[in-house]
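Slack export, channel: ligand-projects

TW: morning all. Re-posting the request from yesterday since it got buried. We need the structure predicted with the small molecule present, not the apo form. The ligand is ISJ; the SMILES is in the block with the sequence. No rush, but it would help planning for next week.
GE: picking it up
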Amino acid sequence: MSDQEKELKLLRDQIDSIDRQIHGLLNDRARCAQHVAEVKEKYQGSKDAVFYRPEREAQVLRRVMERNEGPLADHEVARLFREVMSVCLALEKPMHVAFLGPEGNFTQQAASKHFGHSAHCIPFNSGDEVFREVESGGAHYGVVPIENSSEGVVSHTLDLFKRFNLTICGEVELRIHHHVLRADDLGLDQITRIYLPQQTLSQCRSWLDSHFLSAERILVNSNAEAARMAIKQGAGAVAIASELVADLYQLNVVARNIDDQSDNSTRYLIIGDQEVGESGQDKTSILVTVRDKSGALYELLEHFHKHKISLTGIETRPANSENSHSAFYIDFEGHAANKHIQKVLQELQSETVELKLLGSYPVAVL
Ligand SMILES: C=C(O[C@@H]1C=C(C(=O)O)C=C[C@H]1O)C(=O)O
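GE: finished. pasting the full token output, ligand included:
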């Protein structure tokens, strides 16, 4: 055995022994999670037991990142623990998660990022269908896009909260990376047709203008459909889509990260029908309807200012009523169980036409 082989053997023996310990500890953890499930069932009943606890998962992930001393990067260890919790939760109860499809899109990536790969994620054709599936109990949770950093708010998603009585249980932030994909191996040569959905065009327009101004742009319903069309049309056709779509359809990535904003990202909401406890770093979302009058928004926001509560987002939506009312979706820091926040909610309640608490949930960790 050479010196190198001897040194490698010693290190690999060490790795084998560490793997045995990790393996044993993982199964110890899984057994604990099974016991947790038994306790939940014992006290809540097997029909009403709430297995997924977003606040606890956020705390576990935050703690993992805080105590991490490397050499593994914080987000890498957190990603590993995300998957460990995902398999443990699946042992307690396999999670069914509805997402705004089709398969392979960024919302699916957001769902996997949030729930890990042991959750069973099912695509639906519209936000309405996702909400309906969760409301009817067909899925435990749903994942829908709410805001993109370059395109702004997805107002259709916001409006669904008026129609459905579901709560927000969490949020996910996903970095969006678009690539140029094609079936042949011509690289960036001879591109005549580009298949892409409208929102992808909005996010990559400058890059496409400067590289392929003369190529025809054909709008399709999703990045996955763009890939299918690029394959079907063959020579000269490319799709703009994600790495996941490239893998799914076995396409070559011929240009990477063509997003006009290098930090292009989308925020997604996790919807469900449970109240989430405090995690220590939470957000609350409400929908308020007020009578139209000058200074109405000012008066509304005054309450937050008075109690020193930071807003993280506000959107105006038509209130959909014959009276002259305006509706606002407001996100702010803090949990509804907090006395401070309860004060503001009480004040708003007495001054608004309607106040709907959409939920308090942990600030996105990963
Ligand atoms: C184990 C629990 O159930 C689930 C699994 C978790 C985990 O694996 O750490 C954490 C929270 C829950 O989603 C728990 O509630 O503590």
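GE: first-pass observations. The chain has a mean pLDDT of 95. The first strand starts at residue 96 and ends at 100.
TW: perfect, thank you
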